[in-house]
Amino acid sequence: MSRDELKALIRTVPDFPSHGIQFRDITTLLAHGEGLAASIDHLVEIAADLGADKVAGIEARGFIFGTALALRLGVGFVPLRKAGKLPVETIGEDYALEYGSARLELDPSIVDDNAHVLVVDDLLATGGTAIAATNLLRRAGARVEHALFVVDLPELPGGKALAEAGITPHALVEFAGH
Ligand code: AMP
User: Rounded to whole angstroms, how far apart are CA atoms 48 and 87?
Assistant: First the structure.
């Protein structure tokens, strides 16, 4: 399946979670067997050249694509968890969302010093989530140079923000607007 065919499998829900947001819902892509397999194939194709020692996925939708990608690359998976989920001592990063704030946490002992870690999430919007993920991984000693998404919203400043943080963003499909 082509990237355009994958894009057609992503459902757009207007005004969710708030007025004016076009929510790009990957549920419909995940539920489509051929689409799911093809989306992982396309992610593998991009990631194959990036030399990742580990893949880090952002809870929760980044876990789905990130785990499948790590399996295919033959590397380990690092879960970046929401606050309060890990049973060991963690490091955490707070970051701003459009409304309110959120926190990601990591068990730093599972990241080797200087390991190349590829950040994976479903969607890049402002970049705040991916930058918080990167900061956390870098604090644990990792090198983060690339982030991989299923969807990019290029009219939002995420791509520029990632580039300024030394991260090259990659995405399978793009949607106009917010
Ligand atoms: P950001 O931190 O602004 O780049 O937002 C990225 C995170 O918010 C990702 O984990 C997405 O799952 C979610 N997100 C932000 N905007 C949208 C949108 N328009 N549709 C679906 N998910 C979104």
Answer: 33
State the distance from the centre of ligand 1 to the C-alpha of 15, rounded, in angstroms.
14
The model's pTM:
0.98
- The tally of domains found in the chain comes to 1
Q: Quick check: CB of 134 below 6 Å from ligand 1? A: no
pLDDT score, position 9: 98
Torsion of CA 116, 26, 17, 95, to 10 degrees: 0
Q: Domain limits at 63?
A: 51-174
What CATH number is attached to the domain comprising 139? 3.40.50.2020
Q: 23 C-alpha vs ligand 1 centroid, how far in Å?
A: 8
Q: Is the CB of 152 under 6 A from ligand 1?
A: no
